[in-house]
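Annex B.
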Amino acid sequence: MYYITKELFFPPVSEADEEGILAIGGDLDTERLKLAYKSGIFPWFNEGEPILWWSPDPRMVLFLDELIVSKSMRNILNRNQFKVTFNRNFKDVISNCQKIKRDGQNGTWISNEMIDAYCKLNEEGVAKSIEVWQDEVLVGGLYGIDLGHVFCGESMFSKVSNTSKVAFIALVQYLRENNYKLLDCQVYNPHLESLGCFEIDRKGFMSILKSK
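Leucyl/phenylalanyl-tRNA--protein transferase: predicted structure tokens.
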């Protein structure tokens, strides 16, 4: 286990333990966060605990042509009942991701400190959001880190059924149109799998990440 000091440094991702934890400590300074994502690393920790830096193996990803849109989801999209915007209201998206209740979870890992840090990244054009609106009310969305060729998804929320999927599909369409190589989804969950995401080994992920 590596302990991060004030030095702007991360060890090689191959040094992560079996769970995927690479290092502990440090801060959420914008330069450190940018270095982390460019290096295949992300922070994930509970409020009140030291910062944990992760680089899991395997890694959950979506190759953009592998997106699965179910027939029922296509019907929802064809109704045009939702409006989708790109990076219009980042702070509200991340704040909703913090507050939304999730099955099997008592709380959230998105602390106020993390919101402040990612809002600074948004101001620098690094963190971006997708918003889903219904009658001018924000009802779904997601946010992540934009590396220019890989988008690192962080969290999503729905206040109306399927609106996080609407945001996800809109993001993938944007990434396709702008020649991105990959959507990084970090770790496995069945919801992501239903959308076409699957796990690849860390070595393969890092090869794509470094292939700008």
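The first helix runs from residue 30 to 38. The longest strand covers residues 137-146. Further annotation is deferred to the next reporting cycle.
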